[in-house]
Amino acid sequence: DAKTTQPPSMDCAEGRAANLPCNHSTISGNEYVYWYRQIHSQGPQYIIHGLKNNETNEMASLIITEDRKSSTLILPHATLRDTAVYYCIVRANRDDKIIFGKGTRLHILP
Amino acid sequence: DAGVIQSPRHEVTEMGQEVTLRCKPISGHDYLFWYRQTMMRGLELLIYFNNNVPIDDSGMPEDRFSAKMPNASFSTLKIQPSEPRDSAVYFCASSFQGSPPYEQYFGPGTRLTVT
After folding, report:
1. B25/A contact by beta carbon, under 8 A
2. B88-101 pLDDT, tens per residue?
């Protein structure tokens, strides 16, 4: 079973920052938070991951709370192409499996 | 690199027929994963391989499903006999576990319809 809880859907206006929350209250000390997204009719795509520090790459930023029980994925300037299902996943970094939950369906509104 | 390649992209077959799905992972990747996605059950891990050896097949639904990886550049997922409830999108993914972030790269999927 997925170890994370996400809202089933969210809306965001185009050009605004999209903030996607994720709860992972049972996360272990050696487990990372990973984010993937799945655009319609495509396979999932890796976005970003982190352990306890905030992380940023060309796609997004990841903010992890100090107690590591929750995190937020931030898409700084959402575009229509960011419409997708976003999955928050907890896994030990060298663990083999990814267990996908139901994710958050993000709608970017023009 | 061309990414993970899956074939066919679409497959329509009749109940009882054998179905073979194919996957070519990214060169140099040492892990290969097979997933199934349906509206009801979401994205499920079926089986995965490390260096061509099956590691965990606990997600395989039943004996009608089998997967092989004869070499590092090719894997198959076979369903025999197929049933309508096998209709789904089947994804193959590969990854390199030698260095972080251990991300999985997914193929475009095969949409299977069993009538």
Report:
1. no
2. 999 999 998 877 77
